Amino acid sequence: MSQRTISSMVFRQMQSNFSSFSSSMNNVSKNYRPAITHIFEARYYSSNLGSKGNKEDEPAQAVKFDSNFENVDGQNGKAVVSSYWGVPPSRATKEDGSPWRWNCFRPWETYKADTSIDVTKHHKATTFMDKFAYWTVQSLKFPTYLFFQRRHMCHAMLLETVAAVPGMVGGMLLHLKSIRRFEHSGGWIKALLEEAENERMHLMTFLELSQPKWYQRALVFAVQGVFANAYFVSYVVSPKLAHRIVGYLEEEAVNSYTEFLIDLEKGLVENRPAPAIAIDYWQLPSESTLKDVVTVIRADEAHHRDLNHFASDIQCEGHELKEYPAPLGYH
User: Fold this and answer.
1) How far apart (Å, rounded) are the C-alpha atoms in residues 291 and 299?
2) How many domains would you assign to the chain?
């Protein structure tokens, strides 16, 4: 009988053939090992060019990163990371020529807030959708007020962690819709992402003034997980409803910051000096205080209120956002 396909004799023959092949390849590798070594040295030659000297001669230094970190070496004024694939890091300076200390935003991203905006404006709920959005926000407002009461700083930090979600979610979904339909967005992607970035900078400012406790961080973790998914679903189902909800949320944010300013004026909250990050971001005078910071943040929230109500009105009238140019640079 002939040999079976899977048998011990076949495996022995395959093993002997593989052993002879391995021994021949070892001889080849011994003869061409210098050439292979040079090839690998050439492969990493570009990486070696980026390093200065022998790394063993330089002691390892731990770099501490915080909000005041400057990406500059103290001895020779060079950046810690000299290049990234041959692209040097951008260097930014202030108008007076001093180095820019912030890596989270650049001088061309700063602005002076329009504090003349009407902070008392309210969109009257007339349709069923508007009433549903309004009372949804009202039902979410009372638990937070009972929890924080007059602790405005903690309330503001939680508010900004929630307010930074809709712009990112809406911008992402509009981005996917734009590339899925092969069409322009009318600038609304950029407008919503700018809104999310602006809300995040509000949070970074308050973090310089107060560090949240562990239970506040846990609350933010839970609220963001629920709200981000809920808003994602609502935006997929009805974008006009999602924008209307955010418009009412921003109205409540304006009211919260108004109460914050009232307590600052009464002296119930210490009117401490404004943090450096707020002075540079909003181009505030160097002698600005917390009251000035809360004033410009309230103006930002009022602009976000108008933008989202405007987006909802466009869609309620049967149009798409791309048909109307987004109010870019509305700050």
Assistant:
1) 13
2) 1
